[in-house]
TrEMBL record:
It comes from Streptomyces chitinivorans. It comes from the Bacteria. This is Deoxyxylulose-5-phosphate synthase.
């Protein structure tokens, strides 16, 4: 029985790859040679031409948000539009809540 696979993403290439995890070596993008970012096993990549989807994903990954599989089958709420990201970042700035926590909050008060 093989190892379970998880997702890695290359933001500049807009590409995702399923690879075995864990591993002690750094994974590199086969297209550009940049390091891949581990995003988790519940990750679903946007289509390559989906500019907004990749911009949202870039904000999430740079904020440290990942997509682990939880006991209920998914990673929980993640914003899907730039409008949702802007609303949550504005909320975080206004309240002092960490950006990463505001981004994964299902509802804003």
């Amino acid at each position: 029985m093989g190892h379970a696979k998880t997702s890695y993403v290359c933001l500049p290439c807009r590409a995702s790859y399923k690879q075995p995890y864990p591993g002690d070596h750094e994974r590199r993008c086969p297209r550009c040679g940049e390091g891949l970012v581990h995003v988790g096993s519940a990750f679903a990549a946007p289509r390559r031409r989906d500019d907004e989807g990749w911009r949202v994903l870039t904000v999430l990954v740079n904020a440290g948000i990942r997509f682990p599989r939880s006991c209920c089958g998914g990673p929980g709420y993640r914003p899907r539009t730039l409008r949702e990201v802007r609303e949550r970042m504005t909320y975080a700035a206004r309240t002092g809540e960490p950006i990463a926590r505001a981004l994964v909050r299902p509802e804003l008060p």
